[in-house]
Write a structure and sequence with these properties.
- By secondary structure, this protein is an all-alpha fold.
- It has one domain.
- It is built from 8 helices and 2 strands, in the order E-H-H-H-E-H-H-H-H-H.
- The chain has a two-stranded antiparallel ribbon with strand order 1-2.
- Helix 1 runs parallel beside helix 4, helix 4 runs antiparallel to helix 6 and helix 6 runs antiparallel to helix 7.
- The longest helix has 31 residues.
- The two termini are 24 Å apart.
- The mean pLDDT is 89.
Length: 200
């Protein structure tokens, strides 16, 4: 049984919007005496860094997801479940963001653990996109006729490349959590300019 894409798009956009909005909750307003606000805001830099990186990540994921769904003309039960896997990983992003915001400034093993955890969640996000496109590759009838024949293969390679890149960032986090956070942002910028999976 198949259906149109309207409900899938509506649910997906809602999850992305909520995940992005929840990020700002971790940016706390400091309660300080008069004259100490600027110093307190500087102390909160890990929260600002976590927000900026994760908002950019979610934004790129949303753009890629939107590009994927734009190539889908009908939805079946299997696609709904694989799409839920993608949404589940996206909805989880605020949690590792909160860990990074809380522990990055402290340094030590907690900062390392938080940053490695963030990388693992990013790996899960990339892997979920790979599984989504693997399913679409096996069910070409769900895709628009104008979608290029090699589109699923290209998209899967891109997603698996993301898994590898984030795995490397997890290793970098073991050496320097701050460099790993910078790498997260640079990877996000790189994905903005990555090749599109297909044309419609």
């Amino acid at each position: 049984m198949t259906q149109g894409t309207d409900r899938l798009k509506a649910l997906s956009d809602g999850v992305f919007a909520i995940a992005a909005t929840l990020l700002v909750i971790e940016v706390a307003v400091p309660d300080v005496p008069r004259g100490d606000l600027l110093s307190a805001l500087r102390h909160e830099w890990p929260s600002f860094a976590g927000y900026a990186v994760s908002f950019a990540v979610i934004g790129v994921l949303w753009v890629n997801h939107n590009a994927t769904v734009a190539r889908v003309v009908v939805v079946d039960r299997g696609l709904l479940f694989w799409n839920l896997l993608v949404l589940g990983t996206v909805a989880f992003i605020p949690f590792p963001t909160a860990l990074v915001a809380k522990y990055l400034g402290d340094g030590g093993s907690n900062a390392t653990s938080a940053t490695v955890g963030y990388a693992l969640v990013m790996m899960a996000c990339a892997a979920s996109f790979a599984t989504l496109w693997l399913y679409l590759g096996r069910h070409r009838e769900l895709l628009a006729e104008t979608c290029e024949p090699h589109a699923p293969q290209v998209a899967v390679r891109r997603a698996l490349g993301g898994v590898g890149a984030y795995a490397a960032t997890a290793l970098l986090a073991l050496l320097d959590p701050l460099l790993a956070v910078a790498a997260f942002f640079l990877l996000t910028v790189a994905f903005v300019f990555a090749e599109r999976p297909a044309k419609v």
